[in-house]
Amino acid sequence: KTSSVDADANYRRNSVSEENFDENVGGLELEKARRLSAIQAMRDAGTNPYPYRFDRTHTLAELRDKYGAMEAGSETEDRVEIAGRIMLKREQGKLIFGTVRDRSSDIQLFVSKAVIGDEGFADVANLDLGDWVGVHGIVMTTRKGELSIKVSRLELLSNAVRPLPNKWTGLTDTDTRFRQR
Questions:
Q1: What residues form DSSP beta bridges with 138?
Q2: What does residue 81 show for φ and ψ, rounded to 5 degrees?
């Protein structure tokens, strides 16, 4: 039995780069190698990719209960800190919309380049689906009425090494899906 340190060292020696990609190695291994190299780059830059603590003020279900009846296009002055996993990310010019989910619910993130700055905006754009983040911001609703958090600061809490499963082309064999849940 090998230790996790030995396994990590073996993985780094045998990691796959785009230059030596062969047909036997799938895209999942290539994606895993890319994410592990990003984690190592964070460590080399002096940033801890797995911080020790983040204190949230609300769960997402509490936010939905408290602010669910806000009218479209309104903004509060209430500052909140939430934590969750990035499930969806859409970039539209100087805005990024994301969906964060915790165990109770999900909520939309509204990230503006003017509010968070160029460096923070680039950090948010480089996040992967499945990453756990801590968000500081104020509660608002978009013009369409979607309850959102206007992000003033975002912290990476845990970098996801493996990508989330694809929900459209996952397990396609119906028999296997029903017999081996």
A1: 79, 150
A2: -125, 120
